[in-house]
Write a structure and sequence with these properties.
The structure holds three protein chains of three kinds.
Chain A (H helix, E strand, L loop, with lengths): L8 E12 L2 E8 L2 H6 L7 E6 L3 E6 L10 E6 L3 H7 L6 E8 L12 E7 L4 H12 L7 E7 L8 H9 L4 E6 L11 E2 L2 H8 L6 E6 L2 H13 L7 E4 L15 E2 L2 E2 H4 L2 E3 H5 L6
Parallel strand pairs in A: 7-8, 7-11, 8-9, 9-10, 11-12
Antiparallel strand pairs in A: 1-2, 1-6, 2-5, 3-4, 3-6, 12-15, 13-14
Helix pairs in contact in A: 5-6
Chain B lengths: L1 H12 L5 E7 L5 E6 L25 H4 L4 E5 L1 H12 L8 E6 L5 E3 L3 H8 L8 H12 L2 H12 L7 H5 L24 H15 L8 H5 L7 H15 L26
Chain C lengths: L3 E5 L3 H11 L3 E8 L2 E6 L25 E10 L2 E6 L8 E6 L1 H15 L5 H8 L1 E6 L25 E5 L6 E5 L2 H9 L25 H9 L6 H6 L7 H5 L6 E8 L2 E8 L20 H20 L9 H5 L6 H10 L3
Helix pairs in contact in C: 2-3, 5-8
The chains are: A alpha/beta, B alpha/beta, C alpha/beta.
Chain lengths: 278, 266, 341
């Protein structure tokens, strides 16, 4: 890495997985192996992914640092850069700047139960820490994953969901919104907050990690509070408009915090101190 | 402006309007926009020759519109802007009342926009002598000299978009420069990029600009960008006949007439 | 520490300028155009604007240009090649005619570009700048440097600070840094070692208008106040205040490509623009102008002091002068101080 903070690594797209309508996962490897050796990151961090000539876009690193040799990102085709990324083929070279941001404090969670709650395209920011935890499974007690999407087609990481379902040391609950089920759907039907209430996981010695669209989050937090979770034991990762990724361009400044530096991982307790500008 | 203050108080006390847009004393010798919602604040209203800001820029602003029916202190340029905005469906009689100020500084209340239009149509849009002289000078330059003039003038521009913000006709909720698929005009400020922005804006204003100079007055660097829009006024008049803002909505650049000259196609 | 004080005769300034130009120095000085003053490359002393209380634009352009290439890329048959901006050949610049509030602003910009990650592009440019500050003999009603910890004769940020000793007087030159000394060594005879009076009585009067500590404490409880709405009704959401400000550093990163080649540029941006925080999904955390106005004030007077231990404002008053609708920041701050919660 040069002194130039804005200089991306060159990454080759090794594999493209089509996850859901408009959603793809890229497996990326460093073009320069020396970069690969020097690079390290922790679960929760994000990067700026660029298509040269088009621009940069912010996504989390959706793979776990326990799996070496590559990183992954998952994104939905929404705007200028994601559209351009979507048009890239395996073998194309894109740019990556990172890792930026703070981390899920997974070391502090050792010995506890883990409850992951995610909705739709918000599973990718959590997949890094889910993998990380599963790769170090013996460090944690019960692991519950509650994941929902609008329809069956919109569920991402379908193959991994199958793996998690088969695992005896993971309690996976998948759900789709009412009306989103297919004829052979065997999972739950209901909005994620409703299903969380139904599953009623115990809050004793449990850390909850929640990520989803604003409306899902809004109704999930009260459910967790009712189940006895404290604000300090609920974690989330924020998505905000970001540009530089290292606290200088000003875009992600919310209250006294820069989401790219003090976040994107926050506890609910920290989130409550921020003004409602995210 | 005793009449204005008195009328403002009446309008607010009877809730006929929810906010009156006028001028107040600002810092130093400046004047600035005032939004009167409570009758007692009407005493701050003033009007004199310094009050040139085009207040019509505010009638399309969401935060002002959602207060309810507006009334606006309108000099002739402001009235013209309002008629143009009305012809583009941005204001109408149900959300705007015009408190006109004649060129003799007398207050005149219009019952509706048709009356405003009748008043406005008594006056032609004339470019003042100083600017006419400047336009002549530019006309007499060679293409190379003119190019150099504009590059010199526009290179300092840092694309703050104060010109766009102050212009009543620039009310698009998503301006062309803010669209990034595709990025029609580059974001950053440099020689050619600045030229692109200002030319694009002048063209978007052809047939709509009523020559109020709000763009020039707003520019922090006093760049004479109003010369571009004035030139479009002159050209439009020459090619398609002079125009007046009109409630009929027969816009100069989007109304086809069989006798339109096409000598600009070369 | 004893500051090296010299006397510079009033006609020596032009001589100093000429010597520096002869020695191939690039000098950015205030230049008047259309009645406004901005900093430009000065070819002759005669083109330098004088008599201004404050320039229209700040001088931050020398260290933080309005548009700057940060890398170049090209996609040719050998693959993708990306090159960072060449930091080794940046020009040395002498900034001439900078007011103390602006000189202090360069330090505040430095705080933003160096907190945590160090932005070497900015640092390289800033290190090449020598600041020749000129104290203020006059101020106007928009100035408020003394309310934010500055003063019209402040030496912070300057390499040499000149103070005119009276209207037609000679200059006191305070040589503050090695860079300042380097300038002196270009023309040592012009910097006389002579008795120099204290500068205080030649400085402008800038009364303190508000207590910045009180404002900062108040802002902590002020987020939901109706005042933001009232203050910002006339704000049109342009970027004039941010762009003329010596400490505003918000920027955008854009790719500009032509075919298979192009550059990534960093360019100025403003939190006042409606799309600054707009998400691609259409969600905008700051949807109304009052939220954006609030962000400007909170960032400068509450968030920055908290995180970076500097104020985001040097009291130069440019924003108030440049604003097309008279959003007078001093007036707004005083009203925040006076409003009861």
């Amino acid at each position: 890495m040069t002194d130039n903070l804005y200089m991306p690594y060159l990454m080759r797209i090794e594999r493209i997985t089509y996850e859901a309508p408009g959603v793809k996962t890229f497996m990326l490897k460093f073009v320069d192996e020396a970069d690969q050796d020097r690079f390290s990151y922790k679960a929760g961090q994000f990067g700026e992914y660029s298509v040269y000539g088009v621009g940069e876009s912010t996504f989390c690193i959706a793979s776990s640092p326990t799996r070496k040799g590559y990183i992954e990102c998952t994104f939905r085709q929404t705007g200028k850069v994601t559209n351009a990324l979507s048009g890239c083929e395996e073998g194309s070279v894109i740019g990556f700047r990172g890792p930026y941001g703070n981390i899920f404090p997974i070391d502090e969670w050792k010995g506890k139960n883990l409850l992951f709650i995610a909705g739709g395209i918000a599973l990718p920011p959590m997949r890094c820490v889910i993998w990380n935890a599963l790769d170090l499974r013996e460090n944690f007690k019960d692991v519950t994953i509650i994941y929902g999407a609008r329809t069956v087609k919109d569920l991402v990481y379908k193959d991994e969901l199958k793996d998690w379902e088969l695992r005896k040391d993971v309690n996976l609950v998948t759900t789709v919104d009412p009306g989103g089920e297919s004829p052979d759907w065997k999972g739950e039907i209901g909005f994620v907050p409703t299903i969380v209430e139904k599953v009623a996981p115990s809050s004793k010695d449990t850390i909850a990690i929640v990520c989803g669209p604003p409306v899902m989050i809004k109704y999930t937090f009260p459910v967790l509070a009712k189940l006895g979770f404290t604000d300090e034991s609920i974690y989330t990762t924020l998505e905000n408009r970001m540009k530089c990724g290292f606290g200088k361009c000003g875009r992600c400044n919310v209250g006294k915090v820069y989401v790219c530096k003090d976040g994107p991982v926050f506890t609910l307790a920290q989130l409550k101190t921020l003004p409602d500008e995210y | 402006m005793v009449d204005l203050i008195k009328r403002t108080k009446e309008l607010l006390e009877t809730s006929e309007v929810k906010v009156v847009i006028g001028y107040e004393q600002g810092s130093g010798n400046k004047t600035r926009a005032l939004f009167v919602e409570k009758p007692e604040d009407a005493d701050k209203l003033i009007f004199d020759s310094r009050c040139v800001q085009n207040l019509a820029a505010y009638v399309t602003k969401k935060e002002i519109k959602e207060k309810g029916k507006m009334a606006i202190t309108a000099t002739l340029p402001v009235m013209r802007s309002i008629i143009q905005l009305a012809s583009e469906f941005q204001v109408n009689d149900s959300n705007l009342l015009v408190l006109g100020i004649t060129p003799e500084s007398k207050m005149i209340e219009f019952k509706n926009l048709v009356e405003v239009e009748a008043f406005v149509h008594q006056f032609q849009i004339e470019i003042d002598d100083r600017n006419k002289e400047m336009l002549d000078r530019l006309e007499k330059m060679t293409k190379a000299e003119r190019w150099k003039f504009w590059i010199d003038e526009l290179t300092p521009c840092f694309k703050c978009y104060a010109c766009r913000a102050a212009c009543p006709m620039c009310y698009c909720s998503r301006c062309t420069v803010d669209v990034n698929q595709p990025q029609w005009i580059p974001v950053s400020s440099d020689e050619l990029g600045n030229l692109e922005w200002h030319i694009m804006r002048a063209i978007h204003l052809t047939g709509r600009c009523i020559d109020c100079d709000a763009c020039y007055n707003a520019c922090p660097l006093a760049i004479p960008i109003n010369l571009l829009t004035k030139k479009m006024l002159v050209d439009a008049k020459e090619h398609f006949g002079g125009y007046q803002p009109s409630l009929k909505g027969d816009h100069l650049m989007s109304t086809y007439k069989p006798d339109d000259k096409e000598n600009f196609i070369q | 520490m004893n500051i090296d004080k010299r006397l510079v005769r009033k006609d020596s300034l032009e001589k100093l300028f000429d010597i520096l130009k002869r020695n191939s120095k690039t000098i950015y000085a205030p230049f008047s155009k259309n009645g406004k003053t901005t900093f430009r490359n000065a070819e002759s002393f005669a083109t330098i604007s004088t008599g201004y209380i404050q320039t229209t634009e700040s001088s931050k352009d020398v260290a933080f240009p309005r548009t700057e290439k940060i890398l170049d890329f090209s996609n040719n048959k050998d693959g993708m090649s990306v090159k960072g901006t060449d930091l080794s050949n940046l020009p040395e610049v002498i900034l001439w005619g900078v007011r103390p509030c602006d000189a202090a602003g360069i330090g505040e910009l430095g705080s933003i570009f160096n907190w945590d990650y160090k932005d070497e592009i900015f640092n390289n440019r800033a290190s090449k700048v020598t600041v020749l500050g000129f104290s203020c003999n006059k101020s106007d009603e928009f100035c408020f440097c003394t309310s934010v910890g500055g003063n019209p004769g402040n030496t912070v940020g300057s390499d040499i600070l000149f103070t005119r000793l009276g209207e037609e007087g000679d200059y006191l030159a305070e040589i503050l840094t090695q860079k300042g000394m380097d300038v002196v060594s270009e023309a040592p005879d012009l910097f006389e070692k002579a008795e120099t009076p204290l500068k205080d009585k030649f400085l402008a009067e800038v009364p303190v208008r508000f207590n910045h500590e009180q404002i900062r404490e108040k802002l902590d409880k002020f987020f939901e106040s109706e005042e933001w709405n009232k203050q910002s009704l006339r704000c049109l959401g342009c970027g004039a205040c941010a762009y003329v400000c010596p400490t505003c550093a918000c920027f955008d990163i854009q790719d500009e490509a032509h075919g298979k080649k192009g550059s990534r540029v960093r360019c100025w941006d403003s939190c006042g623009f409606s799309h600054f925080t707009l998400h691609t999904s259409g969600h905008n955390p700051r949807e109304v102008q009052s939220a954006r106005w609030r962000q400007r004030i909170m960032h400068k007077f509450s968030y920055m002091p908290e995180r970076l231990a500097v104020y985001g404002c040097t009291g130069c008053g440019r924003c108030s002068r440049a604003c097309p609708v008279d959003m007078n920041i001093l007036e707004h701050l005083i009203s925040i101080q006076e409003v009861t919660i």
